[in-house]
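User: Reviewer 2 asked us to show a designed sequence for the structure in our supplementary figure. I'm pasting the structure tokens here. Could you produce the per-position amino acids so we can include them in the response letter?
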């Protein structure tokens, strides 16, 4: 479990400076993703292309106690 993870990207290899993943409403009971945002825009799929991440990104995961079966189903 984590609230924030920041990965510093090496500018020698990647165009971005960091990738940050944070959670809201995170707890031992709230372990399921309810919704997600990437750089302020809704993220409706659990798939994120490597090329998007290495540009540098901020991903926010809203957590909850039950699975949201309508999130993450887009391809």
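Assistant: Here is a per-position design you can include in the supplement:
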């Amino acid at each position: 479990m984590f609230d924030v993870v920041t990965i510093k990207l090496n500018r020698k290899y990647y165009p971005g400076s960091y990738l940050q993943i944070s959670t809201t409403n995170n707890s031992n009971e709230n372990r399921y993703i309810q919704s997600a945002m990437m750089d302020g825009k809704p993220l409706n799929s659990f798939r994120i292309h490597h090329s998007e991440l290495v540009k540098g990104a901020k991903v926010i995961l809203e957590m909850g106690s039950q699975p949201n079966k309508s999130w993450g189903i887009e391809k």
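For the response letter, you might also mention the following. DSSP finds one helix and five strands in the chain. Residues 49 and 55 are 11 Å apart (CA to CA).
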